[in-house]
Hints:
Elements: H1 2-10, H2 12-39, E1 43-49, H3 55-65, E2 70-74, H4 78-87, E3 90-95, H5 109-119, E4 125-130, H6 146-157, E5 162-163, H7 168-186, H8 190-196, H9 199-223, H10 229-255
Parallel strand pairs: 1-2, 1-3, 3-4, 4-5
Helix pairs in contact: 1-9, 2-9, 2-10, 3-7, 4-5, 8-10, 9-10
Amino acid sequence: MQSVISGFGEHLGSVLGALVVTVLVAAFNWPFRWLRRKGEKAMAVYLGATPDELSRHREAVVARLGKDPVTLVEDPGPDARAKAIRDANVFVGLYGLEYGPREDGGKSAGHREFELAAARPGGRSLRLWQVDEVQAWLRVPPTPEPALLHELTAEVKEHTPKSMPLEPRDLAQQVAAAVREVRRAQVPESRYLDSLLEPRSFVLGALVAVGASLYFTIRIAATGAPASFTTVLLLSLACGVVAYLVRAGASIAFLR
Length: 256
């Protein structure tokens, strides 16, 4: 072990090669993420919801979708609402046990959003989550509009909504996955781009490259081979690229 450690001083080129690989991997992370966002087709998402009792869930969804190529629209007002829903690729609806204030003595904003989305054929997908009446974790006061709430609840149930998760983070993940599913259905070629720009493929390649650089540095120092900055750099990067391509290729093969 002592000979290996002392060998590092004699193989400074190899050590520098390992350090350069690590720095390159870290530096490439930002442009990789930028390329992923630019390469993916942005989805127009309309987020509709009943009011306050789901505020934490709604905030989590907004924060999560902000990490993806998404144009998000929330309650643009009565005048712009119909066009925004018509232009959206996905309508995400979150419905709880509150109804909300009525607009101009009629129905609430959340109710009208849903009816516009449900009446719009083609070109847009409904992705709905609803609080079940038996979900004890949500405590809200009795709504002043029980008849209208019952009407909205029944209309939403006709479209087979998913049960609202307890944790806002879980809902955010489910919504992000649903938006990704719709994008892949509407733009089939995006499935393969997703695989090539999959963050987990990059992470795997990065870990393999860094691990390989350390391995080659230790091996060269232990065997007494001549120090080689270039050898460690090229071999490590090659291992990382191969790992990335294997992971991305496996993902594309799975899609087929």
